[in-house]
Design goal:
It contains 18 helices and 19 strands. By secondary structure, it is an alpha+beta fold. The strands form 3 sheets. Strands 11, 12, 13, 14, 15, 16, 17, 18 and 19 form a 9-stranded antiparallel beta sheet that branches. Strands 5, 6, 7, 8, 9 and 10 form a 6-stranded antiparallel beta sheet that branches. A hairpin with a 7-residue loop joins strand 12 and strand 13 (about 280-285). Helix 13 (about 340-355) packs antiparallel against helix 16.
Length: about 500
């Protein structure tokens, strides 16, 4: 080992070596630079600043000791073996869309940037596509559009494949086919000892189940083989309302969710900018057939709009219309509930009158966006039919609510987080008092201090802990990969 490190130091310039902190992580970075050359980036290299701040929200920017961009599984295996053997902390980044600090970045360790795992291989005979873990959904959809098929994936094109699927992944196709994780046919994973494991319905079935919502607790996924579906032309777009119409839009949402047999081809998402009346309420809507103004959306049609972009277009074009504000710092909080007309009206009041809104409005670019995502029981049943997942969901109609807070400067991080958490608490209290609270937190929308996996339930936590002990007995992905949502250390 001594000679290996000695020759690694000789490989680098004195300037490069002296610029690194003098610790075990730096030694590992020097070794990786010597072994892998141009796929390892140190802080003094010109590529480093943009790579360390590639994450979508500035709250997730950090200063890794070095950044590794392995180009294939063999290089990734080598990286994992070196980091594990030397007990070096590390982080894994797919698309980097999660705003949680250090969920996909690190200040004292090595960042594994998966962006070179960027291929899509479509198999028309099997109706599947194998997708690299470093891809973003927009690139996946564009590739699949060549074959007039799509996949159960992200609703925002800039979201990464890896984080979305491992966090479960809500899609506009989910009422038909389940969550994104439910549509994985095979996970290719590098586990802590550096070996490659394929997890599917026939091999390593326990790991296959655990990765469906289990986040980064079990290994580094390199590729997902996912089901594809012949959906290309759709009807959809945005309907935008004044903020004063929020109670009416939420009443329409309750009516939309309450029909006896909801049309699974219809899907919507509400985003209400409650701190900015000029933005108002945005209804993202899609019908997964090229049929204009389907009756499934009748509850919304009578509400006057400020503008309306709905038309027949491709599914990818529809998702490209998603509005993402240009604000640098974000935090999210998630909760769940059963649909309730009275609760929805109370939520409309909370998100427009809560005293903590003043704290957010006082910040530069301070913004609050309410997100309402209807979840049909058919989504949960589809996941069960595909072998189940780790989420612990009951097959009932429900709503996954998210609060998105945005602001400009890092000195306001605590203020924004605490204000949003307080408003989130008001909404959860209202749901509990209404008798419609659902004890589930959607990982992809959760804040860094929400105990997501504990909400999967005692039995599922017990199973996840058993899978963790089997595939990562030294708890590498618990202790060395500190970011992200972790399997609880103790049973419930």
């Amino acid at each position: 080992m001594f000679l290996q490190v000695f020759y690694a130091f000789l490989y680098l310039s004195v300037t490069q070596v002296l610029a690194l902190p003098q610790n075990g992580t730096a030694v590992a970075c020097v070794q990786l630079k010597a072994a892998l050359g141009n796929v390892t980036f140190l802080p003094m290299q010109s590529e480093y600043p943009s790579l360390s701040t590639e994450n979508w929200s500035a709250t997730a920017w950090a200063k890794p000791v070095c950044i590794i961009q392995p180009v294939d599984t063999a290089e990734l295996q080598q990286v994992v073996q070196i980091l594990t053997r030397q007990h070096v902390p590390f982080a894994i980044r797919s698309g980097g869309h999660m705003p949680s600090p250090l969920a996909a970045n690190t200040n004292d360790g090595v960042l594994i940037d998966m962006s070179k795992f960027n291929k899509v291989m479509y198999d028309a005979a099997r109706n599947v596509a194998t997708v690299g873990a470093g891809m973003k959904w927009g690139d996946v959809y564009n590739q699949l559009d060549l074959y007039n098929v799509t996949a159960v994936g992200g609703r925002v094109l800039d979201v990464g494949v890896g984080g979305l699927i491992l966090g479960s992944g809500l899609s506009y196709l989910s009422d038909l086919y389940g969550l994104a994780c439910d549509n994985v046919v095979n996970f290719e994973v590098v586990i802590a000892n550096g070996s490659i494991v394929n997890a599917n319905a026939k091999s390593n079935q326990d790991l296959f189940w655990a990765l469906k919502g289990g986040s980064n607790n079990f290994g580094v996924v390199t590729a997902f083989t996912i089901s594809t579906y012949p959906i290309h032309q759709v009807w959809g777009g945005l309907k935008v309302y004044s903020l004063e119409q929020l109670p009416a839009v939420l009443a329409a949402m309750f009516e939309y969710q309450s029909v006896a047999n909801k049309d699974p081809y219809a899907n919507v998402m509400i985003q209400a900018a409650t701190t900015n009346a000029s933005v108002g309420v945005i209804l993202n809507m899609v019908y997964l057939k090229p049929e204009a103004s389907p009756s499934a959306f009748n509850p919304f049609y009578s509400i006057p709009t400020l503008f309306d972009t709905t038309r027949i277009l491709t599914f990818t074009e529809m998702m490209s219309g998603q509005i993402v504000p240009g604000i640098p710092r974000w935090d999210w909080f998630a909760t769940s509930m059963k649909p309730s007309a009275s609760l929805y009206q109370e939520i409309a009041s909370i998100v427009t009158t809560a005293p903590e809104l003043a704290d957010l409005k006082s910040l530069t670019s301070g913004t609050m966006v309410l997100g309402i995502q209807p979840i049909s029981s058919s989504l949960i049943r589809a996941g069960i039919a595909r072998g189940g997942n780790a989420l612990g969901l009951d097959a009932v109609n429900q709503t996954w609510l998210v609060l998105d807070a945005g602001w400009q400067f890092p000195d306001a991080d605590a203020t924004a987080h605490n204000a949003t958490r307080a408003i989130h608490g008001r909404i959860e209290d209202a749901a509990k008092n209404d008798g419609n609270y659902v004890p589930y937190i959607f990982m992809n929308d959760a804040s860094w201090d929400q105990d997501v996996i504990r909400h999967y339930g005692a039995n599922n936590v017990r199973r996840l802990r058993a899978v963790q002990r089997k595939y990562d007995p030294d708890f590498v992905f618990r202790d060395l990969v500190a970011g992200g949502f972790k399997v609880p250390r103790t049973p419930l």
